[in-house]
Amino acid sequence: xxxxxxxxxxxxxxxxxxxxxxxxxxxxxxxxxxxxxxxxxxxxxxxxxxxxxxxxxxxxxxxxxxxxxxxxxxxxxxxxxxxxxxxxxxxxxxxxxxxxxxxxxxxxxxxxxxxxxxxxxxxxxxxxxxxxxxxxxxxxxxxxxxxxxxxxxxxxxxxxxxxxxxxxxxxxxxxxxxxxxxxxxxxxxxxxxxxxxxxxxxxxxxxxxxxxxxxxxxxxxxxxxxxxxxxxxxxxxxxxxxxxxxxxxxxxxxxxxxxxxxxxxxxxxxxxxxxxxxxxxxxxxxxxxxxxxxxxxxxxxxxxxxxxxxxxxxxxxxxxxxxxxxxxxxxxxxxxxxxxxxxxxxxxxxxxxxxxxxxxxxxxxxxxxxxxxxxxxxxxxxxxxxxxxxxxxxxxxxxxxxxxxxxxxxxxxxxxxxxxxxxxxxxxxxxxxxxxxxxxxxxxxxxxxxxxxxxxxxxxxxxxxxxxxxxxxxxxxxxxxxxxxxxxxxxxxxxxxxxxxxxxxxxxxxxxxxxxxxxxxxxxxxxxxxxxxxxxxxxxxxxxxxxxxxxxxxxxxxxxxxxxxxxxxxxxxxxxxxxxxxxxxxxxxxxxxxxxxxxxxxxxxxxxxxxxxxxxxxxxxxxxxxxxxxxxxxxxxxxxxxxxxxxxxxxxxxxxxxxxxxxxxxxxxxxxxxxxxxxxxxxxxxxxxxxxxxxxxxxxxxxxxxxxxxxxxxxxxxxxxxxxxxxxxxxxxxxxxxxxxxxxxxxxx
Amino acid sequence: xxxxxxxxxxxxxxxxxxxxxxxxxxxxxxxxxxxxxxxxxxxxxxxxxxxxxxxxxxxxxxxxxxxxxxxxxxxxxxxxxxxxxxxxxxxxxxxxxxxxxxxxxxxxxxxxxxxxx
Lengths: 749, 117
What we know:
The complex is a heterodimer of chains A (749) and B (117). In chain A, 52% of the residues lie in helices and 19% in strands. In chain A, the strands form six sheets. In chain A, strands 14-28-27-26-15-24-25 form a seven-stranded mixed β-sheet, with helices on both faces. A six-stranded antiparallel β-sheet of chain A has the order 6-5-7-13-8-11, with no helix packed on it. In chain A, strands 16-23-22-19-18-17 form a six-stranded antiparallel β-sheet. The model of chain A is unreliable at 654-658 (pLDDT under 50). Helices cover 17% and strands 40% of the residues of chain B. Chain B contains one helix and ten strands, in the order αββββββββββ. In chain B, 34% of the residues are buried. The mean pLDDT of chain B is 86. At the A-B interface, α3, α5, α7, α10 and α11 of A face α1, β3 and β7 of B.
């Protein structure tokens, strides 16, 4: 039997001393390797081969109660939801068939003969039987509307059930009055509406059933994300490998993953080398090479090699779990555009009820004979046709699909408001390093003055920069490592803000930084007729960042570093510009380098030598000029500007900080994610507007027509059955239109 | 006709009073967590009374299979939670200032209020 970890919930452990007793009782069981109790949570984790019932018995013998914890996963929850939805769908379909089985033949009879009136005793008996059968339909297929309506009524609220119950109830009651007391109504009004009652109930049940099916499709994206979670992990404990459910993987556990398997939890590779397909999370199609020290993320797919990694985030803390949580939250949030519909929804049902009363009174007062029949038909039709659901569903259904669709493209939208604002962006600020460029600079040129060597300059520069986290320093360190240069110890280190650094290395005073720093320290940049300023400018014009290097007050050379532009930055920026978005680049880099990079990527507007706090000022400046500003950055440095922008986009990393602080997180490094985010926002907003327009027009036009507004002019009065059909399919239309968003594809890159 | 018209006007007045003007009695939140059952198109209880500056956990138990009942929203608190069927879901209510906080489903067909005194 394979080794498993069992989680037990303990009852009756009142004091900390119970811990030893329980652990001791478990350890005495044959096959138990390890037992550890969490007293605060009253749980105990047991590893080994002993069956769970034996463990429970051991605890019971020790004087406590225990049960096996069934850790629920999102997948289980999703399965349960699907099963519940399916059961409800089947119930509604059953009810539909019952109602239509009576309603359809009655409807056919009414259409063929045109005879639905009560004039003779035989007709009274027949219609009484049919009336009782219709009551059966109301009870079997429409009971939930009546119960819902009654409970709502007692609760001083009114909902869709209220309208349907009132509409169908009125039609049935009137028909029964005609059957029992025909003489109480005028001869022309002795008409029964049993067919309308049954058909309306059937059609609305059918509409609800189809809506459930369509709703299921709106949450496909979240299902796909949840489906990425592995169910088990191969954990190595005490040199033994065991398959455990992922809920039982602990922090710092070593986990082995073979080719073709999913990464079960987040971690850091400690052994092996592989390529991992992260496209399901980031949208990035190319597999990413992973070796010792690299991070792996739960839900991604191991392609080529076998690796062992140390678990660094488990359970609800994994990046995937956080993404799922964020998408779920965003899918349930509403953009401001939906607020008007919310306000209307809040008053809608009582307003419709009042309209039905006014309509009936108008027919009774001014209608032709038989006025009472017209009044009943118009009131019933008004109640039935009005559809608060279409209004209520217009926004959330589109948000659900849109946010999910964005997640599929590696774009995590924080909430409905961000979704809406992103569609209105007119100006986009892009940070240069790490956003437009790869953010990992490399040393490209080392230009030395006569008498100095490249190695000497690099050795001193790397010695000064050792330990610094600055990207330029890292580039120099990387080159020194590649060239196997041995470093010396630097002392008297002094970092000069926005200028450079100075230090003492091997008894020599070195100065490393920009032109300003050299001028301030009186370092001559023209050495024996060789103009190094010109050399630096020429390097900068080629999008490289030149830095002067001086030893003991004399220029020794220039080290140029370049941060390669991401492969697809140019095409992504073009996509933004084509959409009429003003693109502005901000960088702390020098003006010449910034100019060269901007030129390469096709940005005409850029600001160089910007300090982090100035980025926020630039955002404000653009907002004052009337722009809706998007800010894209990759680091905590950009946080103030990201927060101030109308929409902040965090790029690339997918770390907790980025996910929690940005309005929109782009899971892959490419700027195409930015263009995709804006495109999906625009498509979603368009879809919401279509839905809202349809729902408003439907209700605004449908209710007056049902009340009979066209009758005086055109002689048209709507049949309640038509109203029932329209109502049943209005919400389905909204959900189906939202589902069209699933076909949305971001523009080809 | 006059009687019918008067009856109609009274009916309209009753609708306005019953659904808009009448303030139903709220259920006082006790020391134990309050359970709100979502069933047959309503939250029960739907009007909850809480003391200001207190935190509370309200447990929602959805017994209504209708998908409308699935999402619980408290817009003023930016709470939006999916309620699984037949499983209690705890909603944490932070300390709030005096006032009324509406909670409802996505379509506002199920409605309730938290009143803070």
